[in-house]
Amino acid sequence: MSGSHATLPAVETILLWTGKRGVGARRFASPYVGGFFEKTFRKGIAMAKITFPKTGLSLDHIKINGDVEQMKIDYFAASPEVDIERAELLTDYFLANGLFRRDRITALDAAKAYRHILKNRKPVVRHTFGYKKIKGQKGMVRLDLRDKSPFAGSTTSKSKGVILYPEWLALTLWPELHTMENRAANPFQLSGEDADTLNSKVFPAWINFNIMDLTRNKVYGAGEKSSPLLKLHDYLVFFLVSKFQCISHTIPDFKKALGVGLRGVIDEAKTKQAKAGGEEQKDFYQAMIEGMTGIIEYSHSLADEAARLAINAHDSEKDELSEIAGIYRNVPENPATTFREGLTTIWLCWIACHLENSNTGLSLGRLDQLLYPLYRDDVDAGRLTPEKAVELVCHLWLKIGDHVPSIPESGEQLFGGTGSNQAITLGGVDENGEDAVNDLTYVMLRATELMMLRDPNLNCRYHPEKSSREYLERICEVNVNTRATPAMHNDRAIIDAMMKKGESEKQARDYGVVGCVEPTSAGRGYMATGAILLNLASALEMTLFNGRHRHTGDAQIGPKTGDPAKFTSYLQFRSAFETQARWLMKQAVTLNNIAGGIHQKYHPTPILSTLFEGPMEKGVDLVFAGAERNSSGVAIIGFADTADCLSAVEKKVYGDQSLTWDDLMDALEKNYKGYEALQTELRNPAKTPKYGNEDSLADQNAAFIAEMLDDEFGKSPHYRGAGIHYRVGYWTMTSHAGYGRLTKALPNGRGDRENFTSGITPVSGETPGLTKTLNSVASVPSRFLSSGVAFNIKYTPYQSMVVDGENEEAIRAKMIKSFADSVAGYFQGDGNGSKGGVEIQFNITDEKIFRDAQNNPDKYVDLLVRVSGYTAYFIDLNPQMQNEIIERTEYDLFTCKAVTYNL
Amino acid sequence: MSANPLVVRIKRHSHEDGPGIRSVAFLKGCPMRCVFCHNPEGLDPGHDLAFATTRCIGCGRCATVCHAGAIDMDSRGRVIRQECNLCGECARVCPSGALAMVGIAMEEEDLAEVLLRDRVYYQISGGGVTLSGGECAMWPDYSGKLLETLKRSGVHTLMETSGYFDYGKFQEKILPWLDTVYYDIKIIDDELHRRHTSRSNAVILDNFRRLAREDGVDVHARVPLIPGITDSRENLEAIVEFLADCGASSVTLLPYNPLGVLSRERLGLAATGISPSFLAPAEERKIREMFKKLIAQARGNKISVS
Q1: Which of A432, A692, B140, B275 is deepest in the core (most CB within 10 A)?
Q2: Do the beta carbons of residue B201 and residue B190 sit within 8 Å?
């Protein structure tokens, strides 16, 4: 191999490094070297990827063993505990090094701080106790744990921890430090001693040094707290910029960590450092070295702890602890050579990512592709069975869910019941466009089905031409069995949309899902897909009220676009709406870019940058556009409601002329009181055009909005540099319910404070025909939906069709077939240029069960639901959000009543 | 009678009217008057005005626009049928759709366009289009042209029929474009058949025999279970015998669907005295058991339920 190292792609770099290092000391040669890795990732040479029989893909003979079962029970019983370890260590380091007085934090400063945390945190190999809430009792009680995980270490020192990021939004918990244990929804445990530490040391230090206040003070100057943009943000009802909360919403690249180990990465950084020109670049490579060294130090302290525990342990536990000690001494420092080592490497890197960046949508990518060479090698060599692999994956899934976001009680409205939304992506096509589903895909699906966890958030890719029918039926079956996961994504539509935004075909084909639903080229696209949440209904509101919003009273917020009663045509109204919407988008982008500048000054991200394609080659941190691909993502709230409002005005006021502006405005003012017939008419899809019903007027308004948003955000300037723009996605978490509560009556017949519809989903109850709805949603051109969509559909579970247990198996089989048919049709598209629908996700629970769960939450601790992008436990949601899910249109896939007899 | 039938409604994503995912077009007009008709909107070939009490919000818009004085806000059925001239104004202004005109005039190509929208779903699921009614064989030209368009677009076609039609016209216009026929066999005793359906079954049974001998079409018999009317041992036994005699290979029992009772009420038609509720599962199971035994008895061999 010849030529400059700097221009080599990652894989060749790996081969090169291994050649230098030699593998003599290793128990097995790394399959990433020369062999499998090269075959599968580089040349795409066909190999036997699926060895399970077609009829045995569900792996339903594999059950969870007693240890995992017990840990799962404990997991559901445990309440999250606020963990101050990270926040305190970070604060100590900042205080000791005078960083709070600095007006810039470099990557090297940050990396040293994170190394300090990794090195000094408590290495936890076995969690021994947690806390649980007893219904009706104040406070919490101790819960003994029987931790048997093969994966040591955790993101916090607790078994289920709330990580505190004082540089982001942890300070919003300040007012409730002593009351969090008794919250009605999602209570957090916190000891009095830890609360004191936060009160007296940690939180005060960050008052002026968190991203929000740095933005206030550094951009606008102290005393100028009422800058119009921040004020607009504080009103909440227009948009939220998540720069104040996180940097993440992307997928790290684990390939190098797996293939050459972190020592190999450090060596590469040293080589680059030696050749680097300026001090700043040298420091950046030093930051990479510090970060990776910190991870190695942490793994070694876990190894020491495991060895220490092994001394007094017995039997299998002694063996297990010794094995953990051995593995953690080896990886992630060295290349992973077994499946279990591979999982361990990813887990430790994952912990480190979360000590650097907040747990908001950081996602794991295509684990079935990444780990397949190790899995195959182990199975072929007889070191691993599918049963053992399922067990390991179950353990990893439990670990991934070991932390929850520090959402204050007031945030429950917008993001209620959320986990960290750590998306994992399975299946789809490989970089050559061929079917990439393999045995490990099915192993991970089985683990998902057995565990039924909220986090990780499972996503399956499907290609209408390349994916197999068996695979599709299997992911439908997992949905039927888990009631809510995995979500399904259309490779053909998504790859096309990404390429239209500039990704190469290869980069686009290697997309993984981030956070809720956002496609991102895995390990190389720094897309910050949750950068902005925009409430589109606010633009409509300002159109109706000439730039004012009823939530903010008489204040003139948006531009004066005129009194709608004077508009003589629908187009005049629509163009006023467009003016308001584009103005609102510009405000959100401007604030995001300002806050992005604060990230560049105060929050570089050296660990994530090291675990990413681009920064190593460029010598540039992710926040300065070090990644191969760059953008930021916007999530739109109120899409269907806004589209339906436009259609109602177009049809009733200007088309039929059956409604005057005076009457409409009076009806909105009075929340349709005295206008019940009008409200009924505006809600009735047979009387008023509704998006999602194959009504061309309504669907055209929806497409108009999608095109306008894509146009404006697609050309908006970006703080990371020229040529970088924003992308638009349609997913809403629970904010469609939260924003709904802040919004008064609208022209589509929606009353005061009612929920908006989630994601890109049509308004509930107004789209009675399933295929009509699927066709309508698929007709929104996918090229405008480049940051993903959440399309929620609810199916009646087959169990509701079974009477007295008769023909249960046949009914179940029929449901899975019909389910798969509906998804395949939606993704297929009409062949007239449509690439098919982008994404679809399901709830398979009927109203009876939901109502029972509302009345008897204790019986339903693990009732999983799809919110809008992520999965949550139904009983964790606030009542408004629970009702939103119950009110979603439920479709029957079939009835099983007619019986045929052979004669 | 005009050349084109009216369409009662188009049902999309149906799993009950043939294999796979289907769209079903219900055409208006039927020569029979079965007391147990579960879709009475399909009886009259002309427009009907339907009133659904449960959807009415009592706004009174209908009464304001009615020129015929046919709206009585105090009556349960809302419409004074003998005064109503079916002008449709009340349905047009009704915000909830409680008052609705039944019967949409659609050119055959417009109907075909709607029915072809789910072509992808048909292909994937092994589904297609079903024509139902009413009795769509009453409209051989329209139905035939429609089915031809669908068939030429590669869509699987199925017709649900009472069997009461002119075989010659059916054979000429419709049959060439049909893949499958779902054919109702209700009552074998002609006297009882006349009493409950208003027509003799001679044509129906004769048409079935002829159709069963045709090549290139799959004819499938279906028996609607109507308590006290079609579910007697004697009738089911006679049906099995008749079907076996015709060489039929399978038969489907349709569970009793009482929704026609409600529909009649909505249309202001007199009740026929049939049961307003579904059969209890145990009751239905008993009939199915009996039916299985009858088949076993008739053929003397094992029966498998598919």
Answers
A1: A692
A2: yes
